[in-house]
Amino acid sequence: MSESASPSRAAVAAKIAANPSGYKVCEGCDSIVGSGVALCPNCHSYRFDTTSERVVSQAKVLGSREQTSVTADDLG
Ligand SMILES: [Zn+2]
Fold first, then answer.
1. How far is the CA of 8 from the centre of ligand 1 (A)?
2. Is residue 4 part of a domain?
């Protein structure tokens, strides 16, 4: 899998951390999704943590790990 076609995870994480109110964290799989998402696209959970603290914390995890996914469509 090439990473050259998409922004670096660190850049995405920084973008999320700068605007945590636009995102929320899935309680089922810890993915960061857009605040308007009703169901997690990864695990179909409907429970989310919308607190800025949690979003920023998870964004930092995202920036430092490879495994946590983000739905690119929601980052625009
Ligand atoms: Zn999920």
1. 21
2. no
